[in-house]
Design a protein that fits this description.
Elements: E1 6-13, H1 16-26, E2 30-37, E3 40-49, E4 58-63, E5 76-84, H2 87-100, E6 108-110, E7 113-119, E8 125-130, E9 154-164, H3 167-177, E10 181-186, E11 196-200, E12 209-214, E13 228-235, H4 238-250, E14 259-260, E15 264-270, E16 276-284, H5 309-315
Parallel strand pairs: 1-4, 5-8, 9-12, 13-16
Antiparallel strand pairs: 1-13, 2-3, 3-4, 5-9, 6-7, 7-8, 10-11, 11-12, 14-15, 15-16
């Protein structure tokens, strides 16, 4: 068994409307599913991705309207990165961020790739990375109706940064149980801190990396809006997922057991620093209950929630995502 790469990352927003505007109108991602948090149906769960919401391109948000701001710290998913096609696209994005007044840093090099750190309106820590030299997991296909030209569009999730108090604990889980392998390291931007270690899985490359930062000087994160809830890794199918469940349970790691999310099947557990991991199947996908041309335009509910549609819709603040 081998994990294929990053499947999705799920974060927290307090403002679904503004979140939708930023990720579709500024970043040009496609809203591929407007649904609800299956564990709390009173709040939206928004999925953004490439043209079809292929595994490895999905950035999702739970709306928690009363969420306080995130208090950044250790034992957290401290940065999400998004892939673009090449270095030329990076220059396009720097200019776009200046025009749209998006908070961002200067273009820089990180682990041999051009990158550009930026934040959304709630302080979510994000980074664009260039796929110019990528030799690993292929990216997705930007939506042709995006607000961003297709050649410059976001093609998927890049490396995910974990900031932890005790690096060895996370390393034990990702290498000995999940099968990640060490790829390299690069210097921390924080003076006096150890190098950031890079691990990869599957075909490797930008779509299959975890970057592990050790920060013993930081208190644990207090999760809120602008923070990240969990990261999911790609599993080929349900049969393989059930093998992973046996492996995780055999290692005596507390876990959710098999969970059917309808659009994919999942397993949840926490690594030894407390960060929530998910293993998720590549399919069935997001066109199972909506026409591909109209993904995300109306509230989609999996069959086991459909009988409660009226009750669910009554609790949600209307969010217009129909395309003009």
């Amino acid at each position: 068994m081998e994990l294929k790469g990053i499947h999705h990352v799920s974060a927290i927003t307090a403002l679904a409307g503004k979140n939708y505007e930023f990720y579709t109108k500024v970043l040009g991602m496609r809203l591929i599913k407007k649904t609800v948090n299956q564990d709390d149906t009173s709040v939206y769960h928004l999925f953004y991705g490439d043209e079809k919401g292929n595994a490895g391109t999905e950035l999702t948000f739970f709306e928690i309207p009363r969420a306080g701001r995130n208090h950044d710290g250790a034992n957290s998913i401290s940065e999400i990165s998004l892939r673009v096609k090449n270095n030329e696209a990076m220059q396009y994005w720097k200019t776009r961020f200046e025009e749209k007044k998006v908070e961002h840093e200067e273009l820089s090099e990180r682990f041999g790739r051009r990158s550009l750190a930026f934040k959304d309106e709630e302080g979510q820590r994000l980074r664009l990375v260039s796929d110019e030299t990528n030799r690993g997991v292929a990216g997705g296909v930007p939506w042709e109706k995006s607000a961003v030209p297709k050649d410059f569009g976001i093609i998927g999730l890049g490396p995910v940064m974990l900031t932890v108090r005790t690096r060895e604990l996370t390393e034990e889980v990702i290498t000995e149980i999940l099968g990640f392998r060490k790829k390299g390291a690069y210097a921390s931007q924080v003076p006096g801190q150890p190098d950031i270690l890079v691990y990869e899985t599957g075909e490797g490359g930008t779509g299959a990396e975890l970057h592990i930062e050790e920060r013993k000087d930081l208190p644990p994160e207090r999760l809120g809006r602008g923070g990240v809830h969990h990261v999911a890794f790609r599993v080929n199918d349900e049969e393989e997922l059930r093998e992973w469940i046996n492996k995780i349970q055999g290692a005596r790691i507390p876990n959710s057991d098999f969970v059917d999310r309808y659009y994919f099947k999942s397993l949840y557990f926490r690594e030894l620093n407390g960060i929530l991991f998910e293993l998720a199947t590549d399919g069935p996908g997001f066109a199972t209950d909506e026409d591909l041309e109209h993904l995300g335009e109306s509230l989609a509910l999996p069959p086991f929630l459909e009988p409660k549609r009226q009750e669910i819709e009554a609790k949600l603040k209307p969010l217009d995502t129909k395309l003009s």
